[in-house]
Amino acid sequence: MKVELHCHTNISDCPLSIEEVLSLAFAQDVSHLAVTNHDTTKGLKEAIKLGEQLGIEVIPGIEISGYDFERNRRVHILGYFIEPGHHAIEAVCQPLVEQRHQASKEMVERLISAGYNIHWQRCLDIADGGTGVYKQHIMQALIEANYTDSIYGSLYKKIFNRGQNGEQPGIAFIPMKYIDAKTAVKTILEAGGVPVLAHPGQYGNFEMVPDLVEAGLQGIEVWHPLHNKMHENQAKMIANKFHLVMTGGADFHGAYGEKLVLLGSKSPGIEAVHELKSRKKMLNR
Question: What is the pTM of this model?
Answer without folding.
Answer: 0.96
